[in-house]
Give the backbone structure.
Amino acid sequence: MPARNAVLEDALAEARETYARRRPESRRLHEAATEVLPGGNTRSVLFHGPFPFTAVSGEGCRIRDADGHVYVSMIGEYTAGLFGHSHPAIRAAVLRALEAGVNLTAHNPFEARFARLVRDRFPSLELVRFTNSGTEANLLALAAATVATGRRTILGFHGGYHGGLLTFAGGGSPVNVPHRVILAPYNDADAAAALARDHAGDLAAIILEPMLGGGGCIPAALPFLQRLRALADETGALLVFDEVMTSRLAPGGLQEATGVIPDLTTLGKYVGGGMSFGAFGGRAAVMAAFDPRRPDAVPHAGTFNNNTLTMSAGIAALEEVYTPGVATAHNEAGDALRRALNDAAASRGLPLQVTGRGSMMAFHFAPAPPRDAAEAAAANQPLKELLFLDLLERGWYIARRGMVALSLLVEDAERAGFHAAVEEFLDLRAPLIRDAVADAPLPAAAAGV
Ligand code: PMP
């Protein structure tokens, strides 16, 4: 275990050194991968210094790395791994699909049954279509909005993430699709309204996550969502909720929990039982554009859109495992853990905020919970790396960016163990945390959401 260091940089250097020393096989695999993948990577989020570890197997909520270390996964495949790594119901569903034969090149009995389960669960969905990822779902939803409105401008929010080609963190990404995008600060309805009115004649869609996920598990204030609903109605734009992550936070997603019903919704992650998955859907009048019986139908191709493995796993996921009652209980457990973690920091007088809702949460080393991307960015970042590395050494795997997504296999014992590990971190690192955050600029607004 690393000794207490006076200076954060020293502590980090030591933690990185310990990490590297204990993972020679992961280092070897990473170096070999760099010969065929840029930086040894084909999924940006998984990269971290000094080099990312390789997981060789997983069971329940635990994974084993190439050097034999076992971790409890507290990140659960960034919300897609809600069912852990070996859920019997999901395995059985995949086997059923395999036994029926894959790649049938035709409609199969799973897809409409799965579509009905998805449609019936989320209030905004009248009709739905499947894709292979959340990224694709958002690309299609925005395309549908431009087709339905005949307009081009998209209002998004700083810190929003809607897939690799629709990243609004840091103001955008060079690989974003070339929509006309205008961005407002999250949780700032006045700014969104002013921007929307400036572009009212051309506004096709207002897209947001009803809680920023990758942007730091920052919930939207209810009046913010309500005003965006009114703004969409006023301007004739479609309100699109990206519930790729947040749909797990209540039986019918955050749209059900908040009562704010979007025109279109995108889904992904766990809904396909942990297989490759995405979906978009909403008002029948908008989705009808994709009806191939129409002479003017808009095409939406995709070889794997109805692949039997995802369809079958998704049916099991919604019908057998993540039932409404399970969803409610799981998120209550997450709320309790988040409160306990915040209490652990507050009782030590430490500036750590755990934001989020239900089974998703994120750590911010800041004096007050951030309400938007700028406030999240103002929190201390090196401390997050130290937390990540210190927790790994104790056998707990969270996202490098400080995010936690609880799988159903993380039960009472794991939640208690994680709480204890974070308390140990806080006790060991208390002076560092106090010094580092005292030096940081205070967020502009200090009130919680
Ligand atoms: N939207 C949100 C809110 C997400 O968190 C993600 C993935 N992290 C996506 C879209 C993209 O989904 P996928 O990775 O399946 O393309």
About this structure: Residues 1-5, 441-449 have pLDDT under 50 and may be disordered. Residues 113 and 315 are 7 Å apart (CA to CA). The pocket of 4'-deoxy-4'-aminopyridoxal-5'-phosphate is lined by residues 78, 133-135, 138, 161-163, 209, 213-214, 242, 244-245, 268, 278 (CB under 6 Å). The chain is about 40% helix and 15% strand.
